[in-house]
Amino acid sequence: MMKPLDLVGFATGAIVAHPMRSALTSLGVVIGVAAVVMMTSIGLGAQQMVTAAIGGLGSNMLIISPGASRGGGGGFVSQGAGSGMSLSDGDAEALKAQIDGAVAVAPTVRGGAQLAAEGANWNTRVEGVTPDYLVARDLTIASGRMFDDREARQGKKVAVIGQTVATELFGDADPVGKRLRVGAVPFEIIGVLASKGQSGFGQDQDDIVLGPLQAVRSRIVGRRVKGDNVQSIFVKAATADDLDRVQEDVTNLMRERHRIRPGADDDFSVQNMASIMEAMSASTKTFTGLLAAVAAVSLLVGGIGIMNIMLVAVTERTREIGLRMAVGARRAWVLYQFALEAVVLSFAGGVIGLLLGIGGAMLMSKLAGWPMAIASWAAPVALGFSMLVGLVFGAYPAWRAAQLDPIEALRRE
Amino acid sequence: MIEIEGLKKTYVMGEELVHALAGVSLSIGQGESVAIIGPSGSGKSSLMNILGGLDRPTAGRYLFEGEDVGAFDDNDLASFRSRRIGFVFQSFQLLPRLTALQNVELPMIYAGVDAAERKDRAAAMLDKVGLGSRMGHRPTQMSGGQQQRVAIARSLANSPGLLLADEPTGALDTQTGEEVLELFKSLNAEGLTLVIVTHDLEVAAQTRRRITFRDGLIVSDDHGDGAAS
Fold first, then answer.
1. Average of per-residue pLDDT across B70-84
2. Are B81 and A17 inside 8 Å of each other by CB?
3. Is B76 or A101 the better-scoring residue by pLDDT?
């Protein structure tokens, strides 16, 4: 009985004997596998980006905005947040007092302002918030402290700044205790936020100044927000399981407070971060599947290329096959030799394709600024499939080789 | 060593039946050297294919060292070819991408011989046929005579009982042809049974026994001594 290792020697020997042809034969599988790996990693990267983008807003969170939600109910109403000023401090206080399971209720207003401190200038977002905001958005203080409820209500002119603002205005120096002019209004810096980095939407989440709701509303945002109105209210539920019930309670309470008759449209909208995330990751999953399916077609084409070349090889090497049989090769061993040759070609293509695919995915993520994501199953699946392709498409040529009549084969010129 | 009785081989060509062998009985003893001669189509190649286990007879019995080859299945036949028979062909049939040494190793690979042992044995065989210095050469780097010597070394690799040569000098010039025949003679002198199929009477004159075929039948069987001269 011949040894299996010698079969591997035969297969690789034939492949190495024609390096150019072998490379071209494998190319189809190389491209196919590289495409599958790249496409799935692009899809996965997009999915992670979306998840990070939404997750970055805070977990277990509802966002209440003024104006009806898009596409909801009857009329065509699609107002951007802040265009209809239907939310107020009173709503936030009522929600905080009456919604069971809401761990944070954070009314906010926002605007842009030119900052000036110690001769440096910087333009950034300024948000007027309450201490609950930190809880709702999963923010933490790196140094100093957050203002408390009393300071927020009184409209004391104190500010907590993000890392980017701190660096731009003060460099390496500790900003806590320093003076900061926001527009024309002087504030005192009492804290610095821990860095959150870039959001999934490409926004620098550290480029921000938080001030007490009352102070920012009256001194910075100005005429755009009247009286005790706010632009949005963040509500954080204690647990993810609570989120749907809290959303229902919030909606009911808000309708009651805004005296909306049964059947009439809401004058506010409540967005559930969890359901948005679900919908978006479902759509990116579909997108990933589609890309992978397209790429898989090219893997199939690669397999057909291997079958084509192997059929040519069997015809070309008819005499070799006859000789092998004459000196003692069983039909099965000839079959294994040619099948193995196809599998080795395809598997080698799979390995190269995997490396190229990972390299390509890295390059793409660098160029597009996406997170780098290679599915954990990419390597085993790519290699397994490339072997399978070799086996499936190598089987027929190998069978043809094994069926040859040695006498006829030896006579062939 | 070889006993055949009433051997028939019939092919269907189109609508016609062709009797390549029409009932041949023959006995070849251990250590004989036999030439099988006859015009093309006389059945000598069919006989060689059956003797070598490449083909099965339509009817008749074939005993090799007392074993009924007709009862062998495909795998038995493959190992029969590998261990009991050495083939030498007119066109050498070396694999062009393998070195001389690797070509000689091939039958031993199919017989399951260890890598180290088969290298030693292949080298010894090449030494024996006078090519000890050309083991790393590929067929394209060798003359026809050298290629046929490699093929002979390969045929001896698994120490077969019978060497079957089909027109072994057909592709060689007279000089190298004679050298190859000398090699056959010395192998035969060592006890190897030799059967050469040829239509060249000068080649046939080198063996002790000559069997002539015509139309699938033996027409003469000359055991004559001293006919080699």
1. 93
2. no
3. B76
- With CA atoms as reference, the chain B residue closest to A411 would be B91
Residues 6 or more apart from A294 whose CB is under 8 A from it?
A35, A39
State phi, psi for A355 to the nearest 5 degrees. -65, -45
The nearest CA of chain A is from the CA of B83 a distance in Å of 8
Residue B65 to residue B161: CA distance in whole angstroms? 9
Complex ipTM value: 0.93
Q: What's the CATH number of domain B32-54+80-222, 1.25.40.10, 3.30.300.30, 3.40.50.620, 3.40.50.300?
A: 3.40.50.300
Of B49, B81, B89, nearest to A328 by CB-CB distance is: B81
Tell me the two tokens of residue A229. Answer: 């109105």
Measured in angstroms, the CA of B133 and the nearest CA of chain A are apart by 24
Say which range, A82-91, A98-107, A253-262, B83-92, has the weakest mean pLDDT.
A82-91
Q: What is the pLDDT of residue A202?
A: 65
Identify any residues that bridge with B12 across adjacent strands, giving them in sequence order. B17
Distance in Å, alpha carbon of B87 to nearest chain A alpha carbon: 8
Q: Which residues of B touch A19 (CB under 8 A)?
A: none
**Chain B: closest CA distance from residue A316 (Å):** 12
**Beta strand segments in A48-201, E:** 61-66, 102-117, 120-129, 141-144, 158-161, 179-182, 185-193
**Most A-contacting residue of B103, B106, B152 (CB-CB within 10 A), to test interface:** B106
What pLDDT digit, counting tens, does each position of A216-249 carry?
888 888 777 777 888 899 999 888 788 888 989 9
- Mean pLDDT, residues A275-297 taken together: 83
Q: What is the pLDDT of residue A278?
A: 80
For residue A1, the chain B residue with the least C-alpha distance is: B112
pLDDT for the residue numbered A75: 37
Instruction: Please give, rounded to a whole number of angstroms, the shortest distance from the CA of A333 to a CA of chain B.
Output: 9
A327 touches chain B (CB under 8 A): yes
Residue B198 or A45, more confident: B198
A304 Rama sector, left if φ>0, alpha if ψ -120 to 50, beta otherwise:
alpha
Check B95 against A320: CB less than 8 A apart. Answer: yes
Q: Identify the pLDDT of residue A382.
A: 87
| Closest chain A residue to B53, measured at CA | A326
Using the Cβ of A320 and the Cβ atoms of chain B, whether some distance falls under 8 Å is answered with yes
Q: How many CB atoms lie within 10 A of CB B132?
A: 12
Contacts of A328 in chain B (CB under 8 A): 78-79, 81-83, 107, 110-111, 158
Cβ of B107 within 8 Å of Cβ of A328? The answer is yes
User: What is d(CA A374, CA A42) in angstroms, rounded to the nearest whole number?
Assistant: 8
pLDDT the model gives residue A82: 40
The residue in chain A having the minimum alpha-carbon distance to the alpha carbon of residue B95 is A320
Report, as an integer, the average pLDDT of B46-55: 93
Contacts of B112 in chain A (CB under 8 A): 1-3
